[in-house]
Amino acid sequence: MFKKIPVSLLLLTLAGGCAQDAKKATASQAATIQWNAARAGVMANLGKDQYESGNFEKGRQSVDQAMRLDPENASIRVLSARVAIEQGQLELAEKELRLARQFDPKNADADYLSGVVYQRWQKLDNAYEFYSHASDKAPANISYLMAKSEMLVAVDRAPEALKLLQEKVVYFEHSAAIRDAVGQLLVGQKKYAAGAEMLRQASVLTPDDLTMKEHLGIALYYAGEYEDAATVLGRLVKEENYTRRSDLHATLGESLCELGKYREARESFEVATRLDPGTAGLWLGLGKNALQLGDFRRAELALTKAVALDPTSSESNLLMGYLRLRQGKLPEALAAFQKSGSAEAVDTLSLCMSGYVLEKLGRSDEAVQYYGKALKRNPNDELATKLMAGLQLNE
């Protein structure tokens, strides 16, 4: 006969069997999770390749499969958000990014992309906050820093953006982008020499980047470094993508004028006016240059065009007055000078020239009035003082 098995031993045996089954189940689940994670990684990589090649529909399908296999993977959620942004599905993108931050609070990409979403929604303060979080989490990522500074500029906090970037210039010692941004901000604050120097450094770091050459050339002109400006801009306008930039041809012309190279400057202004005949400032530059060369015919054609395009331009009317004065056409010169000096904010030169022409016309009493107006606006005006004193002496 079989001996009776103690109940305690039976329970122990059963418990051991259950534990063994539980271990097998746990091991099986872990293996399944690992297998799914591996498959999700493959699908995510495929989706990334499709996203980067611009095949967003296929990319979405691959990413959705990856998320079903590994739903708490923050990196896959971020990739899903990238695809959604490209497809214009901003609400979906932000939903995925919130989940990504939930699964991985340290994920800087999730904050950066939320900044992109809110920037597209024109919620710039929110975008700035997200870019700041991204930059704080990944301080070595210059893209996050640049996005943060761009938002500061966008919300009219350019001085803060400049300070932020200047503090990081040494840290990113090989970055042309940060130097380009600092240089442009300095130029925007009219610190032209410092801006030009920073842009020169950017250009040295990326000698083939023509955009940075453009920024440098403009900064050099405003900094009064006309020789270097002419060199940079002269080379730039020969490049295929810049040959039709009327503004750069005009700035080159202005630089050459400052160097006394008026004939070379004339060629630049002529190119600029051919490219953009509807801009008064370009004709003004050509007219000013023609006056320097004593080419009154060309000056008259150019200044007439400038005045026609912008009748209220003080400078165009002032130069037209000079032209008429040199042609001996005093009544026409007076009309141009008076038109130039009609604005309250205009400088005193037009008033002085109106008085000078009136004096030439023998209308001294009226001339005194114009000199008086000029001195009222600027009691220390040297030209007005000299003309007034000369008139009084003659009387």
Textual characterization of the structure:
The chain has 395 residues and is mostly helical. It has 21 helices and no strands. The longest helix has 46 residues, at 7-52. The model has no long low-confidence stretch (mean pLDDT 89).
Fold topology:
Elements: H1 7-52, H2 56-69, H3 74-86, H4 90-103, H5 108-120, H6 124-137, H7 142-154, H8 158-166, H9 176-188, H10 192-205, H11 210-222, H12 226-236, H13 246-258, H14 262-275, H15 280-293, H16 296-309, H17 314-326, H18 330-340, H19 349-360, H20 364-377, H21 382-394
Helix pairs in contact: 1-2, 1-3, 2-3, 3-4, 3-5, 4-5, 5-6, 6-7, 7-8, 8-9, 9-10, 9-11, 10-11, 11-12, 12-13, 13-14, 14-15, 15-16, 15-17, 16-17, 17-18, 18-19, 19-20, 19-21, 20-21
Features of this protein?
single chain; 395 residues; mainly alpha; Serine Threonine Protein Phosphatase 5, Tetratricopeptide repeat; 21 helices; 77% helix
Gyration radius, to the nearest Å? 36 Å
CATH architectural arrangement of the domain at 52-167: Alpha Horseshoe
Name the helicity range.
over 70%
List the uncertain runs: none
- Any idea what the shape is? elongated
Biggest sheet record: none
* Cα distance spanning the termini: 153 Å
How much of the polypeptide forms β-strand, as a percent range?
under 5%
The CATH superfamily of the domain at 52-167 is Tetratricopeptide repeat domain
- Annotation, overall tally of beta strands: 0
Q: Nutshell version of this structure?
A:
This protein is an all-alpha fold.
